[in-house]
Write a structure and sequence with these properties.
β1, α1 and β2 form a beta-alpha-beta unit. It is globular and about 40 Å long. It is built from 3 helices and 3 strands, in the order βαββαα. 31% of the residues lie in helices and 14% in strands. The chain has 80 residues and is of the alpha/beta class.
């Protein structure tokens, strides 16, 4: 893959930080930060419990809530 003409600043939390995809994104010119960097300075925050939302993602709020409940309470209890 070539260099991105619109690189992003991405914050990645463990255990996702070791994914090969982030190495590929860095090779394309994106800036990848690990936990400890200010999330407010990033275009994208990725982590096992991170949900970045703005108006464009509003339709995904129910999915985010469902996923958070399943993660916290387990899938069988999430149905209630």
């Amino acid at each position: 893959m070539g260099k991105s003409s619109k690189p992003l600043t991405i914050l990645v939390f463990p255990p996702l930080a070791d994914w090969e995809e982030f190495k590929a994104l860095a090779a394309q010119g994106h800036t990848i930060h690990r936990a400890g960097y200010d999330p407010g300075q990033c275009d994208l925050v990725i982590g096992p419990t991170a949900w970045f939302m703005d108006e464009a993602h509003r339709k995904y709020l129910p999915l985010a809530i469902k996923a958070a409940r399943a993660r916290r309470y387990g899938k069988e209890k999430e149905e209630a």
